[in-house]
Amino acid sequence: MKVVLLEPYFTGSHKQWALGLQQHSNFEVEIISLTGHYWKWRMHGGAIALAEQYNNINYTPDLLLATSMVNLPVFLSLTNVQQQGVKTSIYFHENQITYPWSPTDRDVANKRDNNYGFINYTSALAANKVLFNSQYHKQSFLTALPNFLKQFPDNNGLHNVKIIEDKSTVLPLGMDLKRFDAHQHDECEKYGTILWNHRWEYDKNPEQFFNVLYELANRGIKFNLIVLGENFSQQPKIFDEAKEKLQAQIIHFGYADTFEQYAQLLWKADLFPVTSNQDFFGGSVVEAMYCNCVPLLPKRLAYPEHIPAELHQTFFYNDEDDLVNRLQRQLLNLPLIRKQNVQQFVSRYDWGNLGEEYDLALKA
């Protein structure tokens, strides 16, 4: 079976996922991509550039697999994919209907943010199959779609929600987790090490994360801190504030230059309090857990899917006060924490376990 994978934002986790599928699928996967810049322009114009590339290759696939930043109807209108009898699937890494937009984004104030959600909607409608990276993502999209469509004056196509639902399924994010194994080490700090490894953006709720650490420090609780993740030119001011306030606790603060450094720092960390307001899957959470960093999670988003229901009481907190108190108890009981095996909960997302599942889902 031949697959053409369309990725207009070929960087970061999108790039890793595409290359992982290409490597671990038994199918022949050809990737057509654009560089990972200007995400809004990629959603508007990326389909045109990808269509030009597709029309210039002498290759007829059995399946066209687009990701959620592709304007699939535009791509289909500019190619002969449908005339060739090629099936189409779309994989939702994220969607712009339920993604929490920044309140400072000018597109929100001007109501232009609807454009990006509408691209996701029409792309799902045009595809033969719709794949979501988590059950939470699938349900949140389908639940929000009716109200999204009701804002339009007439012919808003509410009946299409059921059409999309009937062709939707969940296919977890495939990840190359075993590459972390080579960097495992037994180094332990005297005090527990707390980890942040998300993007430095508002939707990851860094204010609450650092406020929790400030409270621990005020209580006289000893801990170390590793702050990783991609930071952009525009980033929440609290990162600069935290770097100054928590200077004595910091082991590392900033982007890891190499995967080796990133992996070694994840293995060094003990505890992983998560405060995010957005995660359709939570790749950074899964990576930390694979490196046996014990999480404390909010019971929302995709996180409950990563841990067996009977253990939710152990790994999920109720509110900020509960998070502070639980984290304090963990820091004071490090020998017990360091014996926990949370890798077992997420190892199923490794490509070695998901490759066959992907092939079955794409072939169906």
Would you write up a description of this structure?
The structure is a single chain. With 364 residues, this protein is α/β, with parallel strands linked by helices. Helix content is 42%, strand content 16%. It is built from 16 helices and twelve strands. It has helices at 12-24, 39-55, 72-77, 106-109, 113-126, 135-150, 160-166, 206-218, 238-245, 259-268, 283-290, 312-315, 320-331, 334-337, 343-346, 351-363, and strands spanning 2-10, 28-35, 63-67, 87-92, 129-132, 168-170, 193-196, 224-227, 250-253, 271-273, 294-298, 316-317. The protein has a six-stranded parallel β-sheet, with helices on both faces. Strands 7-8-9 form a three-stranded parallel β-sheet, with helices on one face. Strands 10-11-12 form a three-stranded parallel β-sheet, with helices on both faces. Helix 12 links the parallel strand 11 (294-298) and strand 12. It is globular. It starts with a strand and ends with a helix. The mean pLDDT is 95.
Q: What's the helix-strand series?
A: EHEHEHEHHEHHEEHEHEHEHEHEHHHH
Proportion of helical residues: 40-55%
Strand content: 15-25%
Instruction: Compute the CA-based radius of gyration.
Output: 21 Å
| Global mean pLDDT | 95
So what's the overall shape?
globular
How many helix segments?
Answer: 16
User: Distance N terminus to C terminus?
Assistant: 12 Å
Q: What characterizes the major β-sheet?
A: 6 strands, parallel
Based on helices, strands and strand pairing, what is the structural class?
alpha/beta
Quaternary organization: single chain
Q: Note poorly predicted spans.
A: none
> Strand order within the widest sheet?
2-1-3-4-5-6
The tally of beta strands, per DSSP, is 12
